[in-house]
Structure formats: C-alpha cells, structure tokens
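User: Predict the full complex structure for these chains.
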Amino acid sequence: MGASVDLFSAASAEGAWTVGEVTKRARAVIEAGLPPLWVRGEIAGFKAWRSGHWYFSLRDKAAQIRCAMFAKQNFRLPPPTDGMQVFVFARPSIYEEKGDFQLTVLELLSTDQGGLWKLAFEKAKAALTKDGLLDPARKRRLPLFPRRIAVVTSPDGAVLRDIQAVVGRRWPLAELIVVPAQVQGAKAEASVCSALNRIRRLPVDVLIVGRGGGSIEDLWAFNTERVARAVAAMPMPVISAIGHETDVTLCDLVADLRAPTPSAAAEAATPDRSEIRQACDALGQRLARALRTASRHVVERLNRTSDRLTRCMEYRLEKSGARLTAHGARLDALSPLKVLARGYAVARDQQGAVLKSVGQLPPGKEFRLRVTDGEVDARVR
Amino acid sequence: MPGFGEQMERLEAIVRKLEAEDLDLDEALKLFEEGVERLRVAREQLAQAELKVKKVLEIESR
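Assistant: Here is the predicted structure of the two-chain assembly.
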C-alpha cells in the first residue's frame, strides 16, 4: 500500500472515504514514513492531567506540533514548564479522534540549566529553603538509647537486611519497626508519604529512610517536595540514607542526619552495646568509690562534731568556773565569818537556832557562842 | 520498666550526688542501693540478645 494513494478513485462522491478511513490511512502513512525520532523545540501550553498524562505543544519559529506524553513514560520526570527548550524522542502519529498530527513522546530531555531534574530539584529546594526547612538549626539530636527505630524502605531489599544486622549487633535492646514502602517507580512518592504518615502516629524514637543506590531517576521520589516536606514534619529525628556521595536528595537535605549507606544510618541510630557495658562498669566503680567516700565523710563529720561538743563543754565549764569564783567572792564578803572577824559573836541554842532577843535568853539558859575562831559554851547569869 | 536512657540518666545522677554532696549515711546508703539495683537492671537489658523486628502492618492488625 505505502504512500501510493489513487486520488482518482476518490474523485467521485460514490467512492468517498469516511473520515475514519482517511485518518486511519494517514496515520499508517505517517507511522510507516516517520519512525521514532528526536525532535528539538520549545514547550508551549503544557498541561498535566489527573490521569498523569501530559499534553503540550512543541514549537519553533516556523511551526508547532501537538505532543502527548503518557504517565507510564513521564512518571519519573519532573514536569517541564512553558518556554523550556527540550529534546523529545517521539513517535509521529495521527490522533484519529481529533485528526491531529501529534508526537507521542517517549523521552524528554531539557537543555536548560542541567536538565529537568536539576531544575525541579532547585525549584523544590528553593521552596524548602524559603520555609526554613533546610536551616541547620532545625537539625535535631539523635536519641542516645533508642527504644524503637522505624525503617522506611522496600521490605525485601538488602537495605533492610543491612540495617537489621547492624542494629542487632550494636543495640538489640531496640525494637525495629519496618514500614514497607515502594521506593522507586510511579507510586514511590505516594507510598513513601503514606509510610511516613503511618509512622508519625507510632511511639518511635528515630526513623531511618533508606534505599540502596540507584540512578537519579530511581531516587526521584526522594527529591520531590512532597516527600521532603513529609520528612521535615516528622516528630522524631530522621536519618536519611538515600543517595550516594554524588547525588544528594532533598530528603537527605531535610533529614536530621544524612548517612552514606543504610548500615551507616543504623550505626548512627544506635549506641554500641560493648561501649555501654564498659560505661556501666565504670559507673559501678564510681558508685562504690562514692559510697566509701561518703561514709568516710560521715565519720569525719562525727569526729568533728564530737570535737566541737568537747570544746563547747570545756568552754562552758570554764565560764561556769569563773562565775563561781565571782559568786564566791561576793558570798565571802557577806559571810558571817567576816562579821565575826570584826569582833561580833553569834549566840545559838543547842539546836543551832540563833538567839536574837533577850526573851530567848532567860537566866540560866545554856547556849553556844560563836566567835571568829571557834565556839564556846555559855550560860546566862 | 523505665527505658535504658532513663535508667542511665538516673544512675549518673545518683553517682554525681553521692560524689558531690555531703550526705548522711542513711541517705548515702539508700542512693547506693538504688544505684546497684539500676545497674543490675541495665546489665540485664544489655545482655538481651535478640533484636525484635516488627512490620508495621502486624502492629496495626493487632
């Protein structure tokens, strides 16, 4: 059949083609004559549908072509913007329902600023920076002794095995909570976000988001603003082990710590059991030493207290002694003996009662008379 | 049971208090006993050999 169309057979009304027939034929002619090819042009009228399909025009100064890029081809790509210079690898065809000549785009490369990836990355990064999510001051410290460590990763990859091995060796006291997610492919972005959402409600001390290597396209979910914001909003510290040394993802940037590998993430998340054992031993020794010191202190204090008590008593006694002497002197001055020394005498009866009046001394009464140097018996005449 | 972190924190606080303060013997002994007990529990926890791994789906279905 090819391109040889017999125009004359279609010249009469009887032989008229239907619209469907002619578009179908045109499509066949174009698809046969123009195999998939690279086309260069500028994006115009870009529109992404809910279905995930993209529609736009590719144009230059002379012409434009309608383009369609379906979800299964574009899911790894950040959407381009109008005015962007791109290369597309596309299959020229006719969209029969509309009779449009169009390119079905299989691949799309941007020539601006290092390509679409770079552009989308920088755009999202700028948005995150503006909201302060990349501020180093936001980075939280990891818990010293995590009780629960959550891991978002593909459930049956080497990543999980590596993390499990490291945590099991270093800190098996922890519980590992694995939240499976699709980390690459069309559903990765939604899957990672929903895994993060689930963890948000769990009592988890630290979270590891991990995947092992892959091309920048494979990492793309971790470069989306949505995943980056979800990571930044996690209530617990997050360790990101996504990219390699050369490919830093947005997820790495917003995380509290970036680890080069999932094993390194697991090491960062856990203390070393043998080190902690040694720390326990050291604490035990300090505890014993401290008790010895404390009891020595108590003894010393007791001694000090008893010294003070003694000193205090001595002082008191001394003071009392002095007072006694003073009192003694005063007593001495008042002493009747002093009076007697001056020549007075005291008369007392046999019982010792002092006889002070004449009435107490009838004639013949015997009594004793005390003078300064002794006593004599006496009688009233 | 308190977590390992709280255990260690309390232990360190006990040791510091014992080291730094002039305590009466009763209080010192009490702290010492608590410290010894916490050390015992901590060492027991450290001896636990097996890592528990849970898939989040299992947690949810429980």
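Helices of chain B lie at 4-20, 25-47, 56-61.
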